[in-house]
Amino acid sequence: MAQKTTPKKSVGDDPRFAQAVQNDEAGLRAMQEHKFDKAKGYLQKVVSGGSKELADRASVHLNACNQQTDRAVAQFRNSEEHYDYAISLMNIGDYVSAREHLDKLSKYSRALT
After folding, report:
1. Quick one: average pLDDT of 20-48?
2. What is the DSSP string of 80-92?
3. 78-84, Cβ contacts within 8 angstroms, sequence gap of 24 or more
4. Cα(first)–Cα(last) distance of the chain, in Å?
5. Cβ-contact 44, 24 below 8 angstroms
6. Quick one: which H or E segment has residue 25?
7. Is the pLDDT score of 2 beyond 60?
8. Rounded to whole angstroms, how far apart are CA atoms 76 and 13?
9. pLDDT, tens digit (0-9, with 9 covering 90-100), for 50-79
10. Coil, helix or strand for 26?
11. Would you state the pLDDT for residue 8?
12. CA–CA dist 17, 24 (Å, integer)
């Protein structure tokens, strides 16, 4: 008598895992573009997801993003220099980077108070 085997679901069939992989890839792309705040958002979704393997890897990348954002704020001697740099980015038309720097400055200022 022939046994019927049920086909196993592949990992790609799980929509939660597929979404976690997409978030991980988007986070890595953002890291490569030096958009660490954006990358952190994607990677935090992966960490809170269900896959332990992806969460472990994403937490390493998340830690790297945190170090980079801390280092970016620390390169300026004071908040005025950071603000001036953001304004200079606006003056040359790089509004996305200027906003990212102003957001970092805002977060940094809130952390100090």
Report:
1. 90
2. HHHHHHHHHHHHT
3. 79/105, 79/108, 79/109, 82/108
4. 75
5. no
6. helix 15-32
7. no
8. 47
9. 788 889 999 999 999 888 877 665 677 788
10. helix
11. 47
12. 10
The H helix count followed by the E strand count for the chain is 5, 0
The tokens of 67 are what?
């170090």
Average pLDDT of the residues of the chain: 81
Question: How far apart are the C-alpha atoms of 27 and 69, rounded to whole Å?
Answer: 15
Which amino acid, one-letter code, is at 44?
A: Q
> Side chain identity at 6, as an amino acid letter?
T
Cβ count within 10 A of residue 92: 9
| Residue 42, both tokens | 């994607």
Give 41's contacts (C-beta < 8 A, 6+ positions apart). 27
Q: Identify the burial level of 90 via C-beta atoms within 10 angstroms of its C-beta, where 0-12 means exposed, 13-18 middle and 19 or more buried.
A: middle
Q: Where are the domains of the chain?
A: 16-75, 78-113
Residue 75 or 103, more confident:
103
Region 6-22: mean pLDDT is 72
User: Which helix (H) or strand (E) segment is 113 a member of?
Assistant: none
